[in-house]
Write a structure and sequence with these properties.
Length: about 180
């Protein structure tokens, strides 16, 4: 385990199982529809989860990416997520699947939902790896959430603190002393 972590939340093997369940749920949702859903990764945090989920799905999907930044270098959301890189494709008339790493305050998800439905998507489905319901500031929920966690700051498998720890193959709780000394 990385020395900056205090515990493991999900091992690589547990992540694999969560990925399979999410992919099966999505396959069921889009079964029999011939619409080629547009799967969107909210970068950078969801990148590994996104790649694993779309590869585990039987339903063919189109891929697109959007970079949203809400944190700067802190462990608290700014409340004003910023779009750093927009989608390449149009969402008009499309079934959109948004893949998120964590729904925390919910601000990012509200921004994405309003933007994508505002551009005329015909449906909007959100799959998230983690949900922190106790931290919610706005009333919004993912359609499918793999794992619920308490108010802890976690890193690994795409999730970062100040751009570090993303490439860890597992997910763990970051020691408080690592982020509290800087905030
Ligand atoms: P929200 O807008 O507050 O819901 O923030 C959502 C984004 O904040 C997520 O997509 C993550 O990128 C980031 N985030 C929230 N909690 C954590 C965490 O515990 N570790 C790493 N990133 C997090
Ligand atoms: Mg994110």
């Amino acid at each position: 385990m990385n020395k900056d972590l205090e515990s493991i939340v999900l091992t690589a093997e547990q992540i694999e199982n969560k990925v399979k369940e999410a992919a099966e749920w999505l396959d069921k949702r889009f079964e029999g529809k011939n619409t080629l859903p547009l799967a969107i990764s909210v970068l950078k945090g969801s990148v590994f989860f996104f790649c694993d989920v779309v590869r585990a799905m039987k339903t063919p999907v189109q891929l697109d990416f959007m970079t949203v930044s809400s944190y700067g270098n802190s462990s608290q959301s700014s409340g004003m997520p910023r779009i750093v890189m927009d989608l390449a494709s149009s969402v008009e008339g499309r079934d959109v699947i948004l893949v998120e790493d964590i729904v925390d305050s919910g601000h990012t998800l509200v921004k994405m939902r309003d933007l994508i439905l505002g551009r005329g998507a015909s449906s909007f489905t959100v799959v998230t790896l983690f949900d922190k319901p106790s931290r919610r500031k706005v009333d919004i929920k993912a359609d499918y959430s793999c794992y619920e966690i308490e108010d802890e700051f976690i890193v690994g498998y795409g999730l970062d603190y100040a751009q570090k720890y993303r490439s860890l193959p597992y997910i763990g709780v970051l020691k408080r002393e690592i982020y509290e000394k800087k905030n």
